[in-house]
Write a structure and sequence with these properties.
The protein has about 160 residues and is α/β, with parallel strands linked by helices. It has 4 helices and 5 strands, in the order H-E-E-H-E-H-E-E-H. The protein has helices at about 5-25, 55-70, 85-95, 145-160, and strands at about 30-35, 40-45, 75-85, 100-105, 140.
C-alpha cells in the first residue's frame, strides 16, 4: 500500500483531473489507478461531453486499465478518486478486484461505500458474483477532503455563475 504522502500526491492529481474535466464541459471528477507506486491509468468524467451516462471517471479509468493490462493482478492496484465512487462504479471496482480504494469527499446520497455499502460488503450473493467480488478492497476515505471540498465549491460557483 502507498504511504500517506503518496496518497496525498495521487489525490491532488485527481483534483487536477477534476478541474480539467469541468473546464472541458464535464462534471468535476477525476480518477487514477496506481500499481507499485506508478500511475498506470488516469481518467476524467466524460458523461456530459460524450453523452454517455456510464462516463464516470472511475468507470473510464477501469476500462482503460483493464484494456491496457488484462493480465495484471488488480488486487495489487489502488484506485484514487476525488469523490466517493457511486454504486455503479463500486460494483466495477469490486468486479475487477481493485485492492485499495482511496477517495476524498463522501457522496452520502450516491456513495457506493457510505450510502450503499457496496465497496465493503462481504456478503454479496455468491451466485451473482465473481471471486473478485468476494474480497472487498481496503478503503481509505476523506483523503484531502478539505482541499476537495474547497475545489468543488469553487467549481460549482463557476458553473452557477457561468449561466
Amino acid at each position: 500500500m502507498e504511504n500517506l504522502r503518496n496518497h496525498e500526491a495521487f489525490m491532488r492529481r485527481c483534483i487536477v483531473l477534476a478541474e480539467e474535466s469541468q473546464q472541458g464541459g464535464d462534471l468535476p471528477f477525476g480518477a487514477l489507478v496506481v500499481l507499485d507506486g506508478n500511475v498506470i491509468a488516469e481518467a476524467k468524467n466524460t458523461a456530459v461531453t460524450l453523452r454517455d451516462i456510464t462516463g464516470h471517471a472511475e468507470a473510464n479509468v477501469l476500462r482503460e486499465v483493464f484494456q491496457k493490462f488484462p493480465t495484471v493482478d488488480f488486487s495489487r492496484c489502488t484506485l484514487y478518486s476525488n469523490f466517493e465512487p457511486c454504486a455503479m462504479c463500486s460494483f466495477l471496482i469490486r468486479d475487477i478486484g481493485i485492492g485499495t480504494v482511496v477517495y476524498g469527499a463522501k457522496s452520502p446520497h450516491l456513495g457506493g461505500h457510505s450510502r450503499w455499502d457496496i465497496l465493503s460488503q462481504t456478503s454479496l450473493r455468491s451466485e451473482f458474483t465473481t471471486s473478485a467480488l468476494s474480497t472487498p478492497p481496503l478503503i481509505i476515505g476523506g483523503m484531502c477532503k478539505d482541499e476537495i471540498d474547497a475545489t468543488f465549491d469553487r467549481l460549482a460557483w463557476k458553473m452557477h455563475h457561468a449561466e
